[in-house]
């Protein structure tokens, strides 16, 4: 009933919500950004129709966010950029999360129906 | 570039991934199902374009899942049904999560473009 | 090998870490604070040796933390106070989390061994 | 008021609850266990007084837990062993989590007060 493209966009959204709410709150410092990026990407790539996930946690933003003496902060959307590619029944959806007016905006970049 | 209906489906997916991965793992027993249902629904209803969320955690499934002496289990998709309605720019999307072959399947139930 | 009091303090810590990292990141607005408080408390009270949990999410701090147009924020330690009482083998431990120099400090308030 | 050893045990508990509830529910397959182990350990090592964390996610248990066609499962305590060493004011606490009668039991292994 929903079109293939709509289904693909729905799947893309699921991955974004999953990634964000699974990992938000994780303790992070400049010395642990690389391992967290990798784990986040590989974890979400397990989900159905998820072709690739790229997570970039900005070390400088992490350093700036450390506002107490304990030397770490908690992961939030403001510290990272995320890109994902979903492929569902031949429809390829590219998505990204970037900061927009202080809000980590998740958005569709392109929806391409490969047809047949 | 993406259509309004595609955007609405993307938003619907975000809410489902958020709900699932924020609350999966929460300690739950038959005595705490009602408060958790309410908190999950009200929490996700805060997100943009989310009209309504309904969460039903099945007390009998929770009781059956308690497999040790401590009297509680951890929330997973197999213990609950979820329905959501998203309204994005006049496109109304109804979604649900139900168990299908042992997997908590999130799916689009209807996508209706109210047009203008 | 560890004393009963040490065991009780270990259990108290588990509950605090659980509560914080299960619920940090949850979307919250002044209209959903009450249900989230209740769910957090009832959820963690399911855990072994956990006598009582009290969560107070401050509506005014939630309102102040909303920094974009979407009308909600994400739960962090700076928005709430938590108190817990653990009873492990007759040792009663009272704990609290409050803000201290910008850090949500979890601490032991009292450790009382009922002994015999 | 609480002794140094009690404080150290409390800190040890916090780390265990944090690790468990931050990462429970993470999608995992045999191809993503190594990155998740590393991220979990490095993340929690950021927390105060946490000297070292070792996480072992068992590939065979992950493979056995995959009960649907999508090729992954969600992280739970039954899939991993965890060891941690906390050092708080000269008191060294060793802790572990292992499966015991179907329950992921977190426990104190040793509490050694280095004294002075």
Structural category of chain A: alpha+beta
Q: Given the C-alpha coordinates, what overall shape of chain A results? A: elongated
Give the termini distance of chain A in whole angstroms.
19 Å
Low-confidence stretches of chain A: none
Mean pLDDT across every amino acid position of chain A: 94
Helix content of chain A: 25-40%
**Largest sheet composition of chain A:** 4 strands, antiparallel
Helix run count of chain A: 3
Number of strands of chain A: 6
* Beta-strand share of residues of chain A: 35-45%
Radius of gyration of chain A: 16 Å
CATH class term of chain A: Alpha Beta
N-to-C SSE string of chain A, H for helix and E for strand: HEHEHEEEE
CATH superfamily of chain A: 7,8-dihydroneopterin aldolase (MptD)
Enter the CATH topology name of chain A. Answer: Pantoate--beta-alanine Ligase, Chain: A,domain 2
Question: What is the CATH architecture descriptor of chain A?
Answer: 2-Layer Sandwich
Query: How would you describe the oligomerization state of the chains in this entry?
Result: homotetramer
Q: In the residues of chain A, how many domains can be counted?
A: 1
Strand order of the largest sheet of chain A: 2-4-5-6
Greatest interface and its participating residue counts: A-B, 25 and 26 residues
Subunit structure (chains A, B, C, D): Homotetramer.
Pathway (chains A, B, C, D): Cofactor biosynthesis; tetrahydrofolate biosynthesis; 2-amino-4-hydroxy-6-hydroxymethyl-7,8-dihydropteridine diphosphate from 7,8-dihydroneopterin triphosphate: step 3/4
Family (chains A, B, C, D): Belongs to the archaeal dihydroneopterin aldolase family.
InterPro entries (chains A, B, C, D): DHN_aldolase_MptD, MptD_sf, MtpD_C
């Amino acid at each position: 009933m929903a079109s293939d493209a709509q289904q693909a966009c729905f799947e893309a959204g699921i991955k974004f919500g999953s990634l964000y709410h699974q990992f938000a709150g994780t303790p992070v410092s400049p010395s642990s950004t690389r391992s967290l990026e990798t784990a986040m990407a590989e974890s979400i790539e397990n989900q159905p129709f998820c072709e690739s996930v790229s997570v970039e946690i900005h070390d400088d933003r992490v350093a700036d966010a450390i506002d107490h003496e304990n030397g770490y902060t908690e992961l939030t959307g403001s510290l990272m950029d995320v890109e994902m590619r979903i492929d569902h029944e031949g429809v390829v959806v590219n998505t990204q999360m970037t900061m927009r007016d202080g809000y980590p905006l998740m958005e569709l970049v392109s929806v391409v129906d490969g047809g047949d």
